[in-house]
Every structure is written in C-alpha cells, then in structure tokens.
Amino acid sequence: GDADAIAVAIENEGVADGGVNQPVSDAQAAIVRGDAGNAYDQIAQRPAWAGVLDREQTSALRDAAGREVERDDARRALADRTEAHRLGQTVRSDIRALYSTGSSGDIDAASVLRELGPDRHRHWVEARQDAASVAEQTRDMASLTDDQIAHKVEAQRPEPGSEDLARAQAVHERISRRADEILRERTDNPARAALRVASVRRALQDAQDPDTASPDKIQALVREMLATQSALGISKAALAPVPDEWALRIGKSLQTVATGQGSADADEVAGAVRSMYGDIRLQYGEFADDVIAYSLGRTSALGRATAHKVGALMKALAGTI
Q1: Shortest CA distance to 276 belongs to which of 253, 247, 299?
Q2: Cβ partners under 8 Å of residue 179, min gap 6
Q3: Which residues, including other chains, have CB under 8 Å from residue 5's CB and lie 6 or more apart?
Q4: Is residue 53 helix, strand or coil?
Q5: What are phi and psi of 187, to 5 degrees?
Q6: How far apart are CA 304 and CA 113, in angstroms?
Q7: What are phi and psi of 92, to 5 degrees?
C-alpha cells in the first residue's frame, strides 16, 4: 500500500548482475511513483528499456496499467461526486442560515464554482443576496407594531417592470410570510411574541439567573412583558404576564391545590391554598392575581373568565396576606 516503498524496493533490485539492470529498475520505480504521468501513458510511449520485454509481457503490462488507470479514474469520479454532494449540502445550509439569522459560514466561492459549476454558483450567489436582504428587512420586525409591520411589507413590494422582478417578488413574498408569522403568533401566543423582543429576553435572563433571581427581578419581567405586549397592540384581555413555561408550572400546582387532590380535608385544602397564594403574592406582588388567572387559563380547558373566578376564590380563601 506504500507506493514509495515499492519504488525503493524496485530501485534496489537494480544492483543485481553488477548494476546492469539499474536503468530498467529506475524507470520502473518512476512508473510506480507516477513521476512522468500515469503508467499506461508511459508504457504506451515504449521507452528504450521496454525492448527487454517480450510481446506477451508487454501486452500484460499494458493491460494491467490500463485497468489501474480505470480504477484510478473511478476513484477520482467518486471522490468528485462525494465532494460535490457535501458542498451542495453546505450551500443549502448556508442559505437557510442567512434567511433565519442574517449570517452564514465561510464558504470558498471558488470551490462552489469548481465543484458545482457556473449555473449553481450563480444561483448560490443570488440566493445569498436575497436571503441577506430578507434577514435585514425582518431582523427587528418582531418589535414593531402591526401597522408598522404592514407598512414595512408594503414598502418592499416590487414595482411592475422593475429589474429582476421575479427575484424581487420572491424576496417580498418571504418578508410578507415572516410578517404573517409574527402577527399570527401575537394572536395565538402573546407570551412567545413578547419574548421575541430583546428587552423582554434580557428581563427573562435576569429573572432566571440563580444569582439575581428575586421578587424584584421577577416583577420586572412581568412589567416588561405587559408593557411590550401593550406597545405591540395586543389587547388587554389577551396580555400574558409570564412565559408559558412558567404559566403551565404555576397553573398545574394551583389546580392540584385548589381541587384538594390527595386530600379530603377542607381545612387542609384551605390551608394549602393560603400558603400557595401567599407564595405567589410574595413572588409576583401586584401582578399575582393576573398571573394566577393567566396560568389557570393556559393549563386546562378552563375559559379565561372561569379562571378569573377560580383566582378570586383562591384569594378569598387565602384571606389577607
């Protein structure tokens, strides 16, 4: 498996018979190393030393060299196809990353041109430009109001007859689609929509940090979430005071305590309600009742109005805390 070692062994055979075979051995070693091109071409040129072989030996050697050339070509073709496939996947990932984040990896354009050809190279360059444009136009869209989003989408609508109209329409379509996703999320999941805004994410990070978590940090998060959703135009009835993960955890605990699961003692249930309501009140302060109502509403099939009634009942049971 070591061509150079084989070549050296062949060269060493040249010392036989007082070195008379050295020229032939050196030429054979050169074939093994590929110093002057592939083996078949070298043999086809019939160097002077080839005269020492008879016709059958020469034919066998040519056949062997030809087979080796074919195998080598097949290996190179397979390697080329493998590299082209890998590069094609990398290019597709590059475009997806650009659309979603506005940034991408470092891809050698010359490799794309060489491996994938001029047509796919041109398509990749154009797709990168379009993806970067979409990312730029939608980067801060989640923090805009509904009207501002509509205005931004309309401003990107291409004029009929404009240059590269098809590409411009495709870019506009992607921007419009992203706008629809944001607006739909504000209706379906206001909490998640609020977390798209940088200031809310920072408040959440502070509230979740074990070193800084405190009622003040948690209430600051609630305050920022409510203010952000109001600024985005989300109706007061739909405002989400906490992230959904928090609401689900709180709601399940509230349901367990309020329904007395695991206990038939009314006094024991009331005591557990008072204790939990006190904990929530301590943690969430003035927002405690809103958090309770929202959490119950997100946990089960309870309607929001019913959830408010359950929250009021818990408050009544808890008394003044």
Answers
A1: 253
A2: 138, 141, 149, 150, 152, 153
A3: none
A4: coil
A5: -80, -45
A6: 59
A7: -65, -40
How many CB atoms are closer than 10 A to CB 222? 23
Angle 35-49-68 (CA atoms, 0-180°, nearest 5)?
Answer: 50
Cα separation, 12 vs 14, in Å, equals: 5
Total H helices, total E strands in the chain: 14, 0
**CA separation for the pair 278, 290 (Å, rounded):** 14
10-residue averages of pLDDT along the chain (321 residues): 85 79 84 70 58 73 80 75 76 78 74 78 83 87 93 90 85 92 93 94 86 86 95 92 91 75 67 83 91 83 53 58 46
Could you tell me the two tokens for 34?
């590929």
- The amino acid at residue 306 is T
* Residue whose structure tokens are 């990353």: 97
**Residue 241 amino acid letter:** P
pTM of model > 0.85:
no
Helix (H) or strand (E) holding 9, with range, is: helix 3-12
Q: Residue 241: which H helix or E strand, with range?
A: none
DSSP percent split of the chain into helix, strand, coil, nearest 5: 80, 0, 20
